[in-house]
Design a protein that fits this description.
The protein is built from eleven helices and nine strands. The chain is an alpha/beta fold. The protein folds into two domains: 187 residues, Vaccinia Virus protein VP39 (Rossmann fold); 78 residues, Helicase, Ruva Protein, domain 3, CATH 1.10.8. It has a seven-stranded mixed beta sheet with strand order 4-3-2-5-6-9-7, with helices on both faces. A two-stranded antiparallel ribbon has the order 1-8. The protein is elongated and about 65 Å long.
Length: 277
């Protein structure tokens, strides 16, 4: 039997206070940890990445499975604590957004809320990762999962092209030390095969939602940033193609479109570019 969440948190807090700049709110609830591990479904063959382990309340559980675990922690004091308490842990001290990640197949983490959005991008770009269980702020979870039309935004619509995301357990503020002012939510993400033209569709989605109250005809008239990163495309080719397509929803606003509409728009642009040579 391990030390337990509250004991680990208390021992770290005896060494140092929570670092407010890092948004540290440590999970202290064993039932939420139980649910996280049940959703994670870890075997000894898994290589798991944990982001922001802090005092190691989830780390302890993950190590007990016998999986290969790599933790990435930016707080040097927490790193020292983790090395003292979990000497077998493979620990990377640094920023998870900039450090090189090892090849792993799962991310299981109570992630720092202030890096939630860019962290999803890093996870998505790490092609070896095919399953994720994360505890995030509930408002972020709603935007990520896009349960309702009102939740549509660039984050969720782009994520939908690479992942099947599902709401899981709701977690109250009392489950953390110190208590945040928001509710949290466990979310699972299962990687799917990205559809054709998904890279182009993502650029269109991000550009359109950057001015979400405007119609697509206006927001998409200019070439998206980084268009040249999509094979076969450059700014002039985009401007020419957008002028030659006929699309029934070009006068809609971005939140009115389903994911299939974005893919159709991307395909129309591809067809126009190819037709113009």
């Amino acid at each position: 039997m391990g030390q337990g969440a509250r004991a680990l948190i208390d021992r770290l807090r005896m060494r140092q206070d929570n670092v407010k700049a890092l948004g540290q709110h440590f999970l202290n609830n064993e039932e939420v940890l139980d649910e996280t591990m049940a959703l994670a479904d870890i075997s000894e063959d898994d290589h798991v990445i944990e982001i922001g382990p802090g005092p190691g309340v989830l780390t302890e559980r993950l190590l007990e499975t016998g999986c290969k675990l790599t933790a990435i922690e930016i707080d040097s004091g927490a790193c020292e604590f983790l090395r003292d308490n979990f000497p077998e842990l493979e620990l990377i001290e640094g920023d998870a957004l900039t450090e090189k990640w090892p090849k792993a197949n799962k991310v299981i983490a109570n992630i720092p809320y202030q890096i939630s959005s860019p962290l999803i991008d890093v996870i998505t770009r790490t092609q070896s990762i095919d399953y994720v269980v994360i505890l995030v702020q509930e408002e972020f979870a709603e935007r990520l999962v896009v349960e309702w039309e009102s939740d549509r935004g660039s984050l969720g619509m782009c994520t939908m092209l690479d992942w099947d995301c599902t709401f899981e357990m709701r977690v109250g503020p009392h489950c953390f030390t110190p208590s945040p002012q928001v509710h949290s939510r466990l979310v699972t993400m299962t990687r799917i095969e990205s559809p054709k033209n998904s890279k182009l569709a993502k650029l269109l989605i991000r550009q359109a939602f950057s001015q979400r109250r405007k119609k697509l005809r206006n927001t998409l008239s200019k070439a998206p940033k980084r268009i040249s990163r999509v094979a076969g495309w450059h700014a002039k080719a985009y401007r020419d193609a957008i002028q030659h397509i006929e699309c029934e929803f070009i006068d809609e606003r971005p939140e009115d479109l389903e994911i299939e509409d974005w893919l159709e728009l991307a395909q129309l642009l591809e067809d126009a570019r190819e037709a113009m040579g």
